[in-house]
Amino acid sequence: QVQLVEAGGGLVQAGGSLRLSCAASGRTFSNYAMGWFRQAPGKGREFVAAISWSGSSTSYANSVKGRFTATRVNAKNTVYLQMNSLKPEDTAVYYCGAAGNYYKAQVGECDYWGQGTQVTVSS
């Protein structure tokens, strides 16, 4: 079992920044690729970013490319999502997920999910 806890969400003005964190406990964190997903009201969950187990590979949705950066510190069992130049359309609940491989992290086939953290961007 892996437990994931997201933090760092909040209310920010358009153009601002937030850094989300996802702390893992339980089984070996470095065995997992990690994905970030978000769900806006009335919409399905969508892919935001993924990072391989080593951190050497990352991928992003086109809508956040160049603005969001995913990193991880395996020694701290934590993955981060730095979000810059935030837009109102980034408003959503953000979830992190742990997957058995990098591909699965990108398509949301995660073995474990966090509870989510709310990000609200005002115009």
Write a structural description.
The chain has one helix at residues 102-107, and strands spanning 2-7, 10-13, 18-26, 33-39, 46-51, 58-60, 68-73, 78-83, 92-99, 112-113, 117-122. The strands form two sheets. Strands 2, 4, 5, 6, 9, 10 and 11 form a seven-stranded mixed β-sheet that branches. It starts with a strand and ends with a strand. With 123 residues, it is mainly β. Strand 5 (46-51) and strand 6 (58-60) form a beta hairpin. The model has no long low-confidence stretch (mean pLDDT 96). It is globular and about 40 Å long.
Name the descriptors.
seven-stranded mixed beta sheet, mainly beta, four-stranded antiparallel beta sheet, 51% strand, 5% helix
Task: Write a concise synopsis of the structure shown.
With about 120 residues, the chain is mainly beta. Helices cover about 5% and strands about 50% of the residues. β7 (about 70-75) and β8 form a beta hairpin.
Please render the helix and strand layout as text.
Blueprint: E1 2-7, E2 10-13, E3 18-26, E4 33-39, E5 46-51, E6 58-60, E7 68-73, E8 78-83, E9 92-99, H1 102-107, E10 112-113, E11 117-122
| Mean of pLDDT | 96
Uncertain residue segments: none
Number of strands: 11
Instruction: Give the helix level as a range of percent.
Output: under 10%
The assigned structural class equals: mainly beta
Computed Rg: 13 Å
Number of helices: 1
**Major sheet attributes:** 7 strands, mixed
- So what's the overall shape? globular
Order of helices and strands: EEEEEEEEEHEE
What is the terminal-to-terminal distance? Answer: 40 Å
Q: Strand fraction band?
A: over 45%
